């Protein structure tokens, strides 16, 4: 096997190249440590003369990070409008939020052509190319069209909808044809695999699709949580709770995360189980992302209003039911807070995997573990049936689960946590990348 070529919309930020902090960087850490790797993607910068600017490169250990610039038009139409304004809501079943224009679709394919043109000259015959995520659905075929004959794999980190939903996308056949040029397509769950296979079959396309759920590095995250739990930052936050039970949610600001529904579930807990009033605090950490997209701005306004309404209705001079911040909190502090939390509250309407759920389990104190309340629509749910599984559209059902979690005895909590921790330890970030690359290596390139 020659070099590993990782292609993603963005490469890790310079600070994450030596200290992986989460997501794809952690997931690929083991793979890039064991072989020569080129990681290729957009630099994050826009320039009017982007086409005339050379690629930039930085060697860090085994990895050569190579980036290039886009124009402002490409960023707006390819990234904001089509990738995040069309494909993201489509794949998360939120078809009412799709804002499709032919100009944006054309720009999406044009930007993928830029990726292909910039990348192809860097490739060697025995390279293995691994493309990541929905920004780059057509890239496999574009590389084939430029003469690339080696193995090409693709991994989709978000859900994929069934044919009945996906068919709403104009030119879906073109997108799937581009994707089918890859030798292996990985997705997070068996449901996603079934959905994608059904779409290929609808167009008479043949493609190898495999469910390969991504994990975390539970050992290092657990150690980070143990060390952070006694840090000054975490102790200070816990002191402000004045002995109340801690329910914790951590999500990027996104309509797929079920955040308004989560607030309503917590409100139902206070309404239906008044014994918890003054005894529990809900900390929701929600860093803002894609603030320029209208749907995200409206979501923030809705959350701001819900938090104010609930705190106004139930709060007292010495107790605030919901602590809510849109400021990012350091990963090491979050790890310590997970360990101290009594309940992890994870309620996506639909997502690819949800690594927060796995991090919460990894962080727990074995002798006194917290309880995970988890949406059955999270990608992690099939791997974690011992969690208290809920439907995020059912506020009363979420309230019941929160009450059970807050009152569950230590033996029941330990039994559920132990089973989930075993699964989190078995299916790790390292095993994910190895499983996918092993499967890709076993496939004879069809081009």
TrEMBL record:
Question: Per its UniProt record, what InterPro entries does this chain match?
Answer: Glyco_trans_20 (IPR001830)
PANTHER family named in the record: BCDNA.GH08860, TREHALOSE-6-PHOSPHATE SYNTHASE
Q: Which GO terms describe its molecular function?
A: alpha,alpha-trehalose-phosphate synthase (UDP-forming) activity
* Parts forming coiled coils: none
Protein's UniProt name: Alpha,alpha-trehalose-phosphate synthase
The family database entries (CDD domains) matched by this protein are listed as:
GT20_TPS
Q: Which family does the similarity line name?
A: Belongs to the glycosyltransferase 20 family.
Source organism: Gluconobacter potus
One GO term of the biological process aspect:
trehalose biosynthetic process
* Domain of life, per lineage: Bacteria
A Pfam family this chain is assigned to? Glyco_transf_20
